[in-house]
Amino acid sequence: GKTTLDRLLIWLHLRMPDGGDGFVHKLGYHYGAAVAYTFAWSYMFVQHLWLVCSLGLVSLAVGANPGSFNSFGTRALWEIIKLAILISTVLLLDDVRIPSQILTCGIDTALAEQVGNP
User: Pick from 118, 113, 111, 100: which is nearest to 20 by CA?
Assistant: First the structure.
């Protein structure tokens, strides 16, 4: 069975359930692959937003400050956080490049591929 941590990670959209999300399966069955693809894409986007949110919390915790030109340490930390956000954006773009990577729950992606990314 699933542990409490697994359930929490799935509820926060930090992790996709094994075999895909049941809600996405139902959407694909009732409304078609294009709607399921859009929701699966949103699910993936939320995962990347959590990454950006965690980077923001790290920047607050370490005291990164974009306006501190006199202090090299806090300005350097800010630049590192900006670089990490850019890298996470590149990772998101790489993840959404191939529609079959987004909709992995066994629904035919031929129609979804025509929809394009939201």
Answer: 100
| C-alpha distances out from residue 1 to 4, 18, 92, 104, Å | 10, 11, 30, 22
Rg (CA), the chain: 18
* Residue 4 CA, distance from chain mean position: 21
Which amino acid belongs to residue 69? F
Residues 6+ apart with CB under 8 A from 92: 44, 45, 48
Q: How many CB atoms lie within 10 A of CB 76?
A: 11
What is the pTM for the complete model shown?
A: 0.63
Using 50 as the pLDDT threshold, list the residues of the chain that sit under it.
none
